[in-house]
Amino acid sequence: MTERPAQRTPNRQLAALIAEAGFSNAGLARRVDQLGLEHGLDLRYDKTSVTRWLRGQQPRGTTPALIAEVFTRRLGRRLTAQDLGLDACAPVYAGLEFAATPEEAVDIVSGLWRKDSGSHAELRKIAFTPAGLVVPSRDWLIGRADDKVARGEPPATRIPAQGRTALRPPAAAEQGLPSLPRQRAQAERGPGQKVTAGDIAALRSVGELFRTLDDAYGGGHARQALVRYLEHECEPMLRGTYGEQTGRRLFAAAADLTRLAGWTSYDIAAHGLAQRYFVQALRLAQAAGDRAYGAYVLVTMSRQAVYLGHGREAVQLARVAQQGVGTSAPPVVQTLLHASEARGHGVLGEVRACTAALVRAERALETARPGDDVPHWAKFFDEAQLADEFGHCHRDLQQFRAAAQHAERSLQLRAPSYARSRLFCRVVLATARLGLGELDQACQLAAEAAGQAAEMRSVRAVEYVRDFERRLEPYKDAAPVRTYRDKVSALL
To answer: Residue ranges of region Disordered (predicted)?
Structure first.
């Protein structure tokens, strides 16, 4: 990789940190190369490269951020490229930082929104990194609540008298427009404006709209519109003026929308980007003082880890979420947390641990009562969802009869509006039928799911179908399989 010309000043900051970490030059180079591989980067650094850095040369591209992350993992504290005496750049690790303050959190997440809104294709190609889950989840678990999130109005004396007229929009009469209240005269919100209860209600309503679109049509349908909304509407609010109570509610709404941006990114297989959104949603939830929602974000991260086959990380995230909320969460939330742990055990093939977690989830849901105060984000978790979790776990454990029973129950109970979830469950049922030797019925169910997947913009939906097709390989010459392939080949 091309380096910049050597500088005369030795990098004493980097030398001190190498000594503190106990790295050899070769050891540091090896760790940077390994971390690069996690992000799909083929780096070829060696001990000579590190020697040049110590002499003052600056590595290009994303390497400074990777070096900083190597030291962050080793020393257990967040370090930046500047801390190492290296030039900052647009790092591949941007977005995985768990910010020290609410102000820093706003800077990080808004930068992520802007880059994503700008259709940076490379951002959606960044790889998921299991190691990137460790520091944020730890920092959330042991971190203290933010003392203050309120933002006051800037002093009026900062605006020169001669400049005030220029800041006002042209008079409505001069433009031939009807008079509007002054605070509504601007078409778009600008930083510094006061955030109202109506603003936060609008954020919540937008979240429900995009959630409904995601459930019915897949994450790719309106993901980009959601990101632009975050950039153009949510960021100015976060940089506006608000008191403590309003600020907490604002950060909570921003966390919910950011998690949803991550969820829709996950659904289109932009896994590294989704991971970054989830980390930032976790930090925003901490600024909101909403411990339960932070646990929900960790559960979301756990689900992504399950999907990508990282069962051990999925279990750890679910357990951190459980530890973070303790026993104070409503029964439905406890059910959600235990079911997520079960999914991780299922991927790992850990029958006893998976069964125990499912039992805890079932018992928690049994204690739920109609009058319970359930957070809005947990209301989807009902008997249909729990049956779906059971079906997935039993499928992963190759307990196909139980998987079929629970998948059928989930499909009977699940509302049609959850179209993608029903599709997933139908494929689980098809897989269970295949495992039971019921080839005709399995192919029929999967063909129905493939037809639904063709109507969605969801990579996950297509991948569920493709996974079933891989399981068909031993039966490729059977008539039902040939019929299935003929139907699906024109769809996907």
So the answer is: 151-194
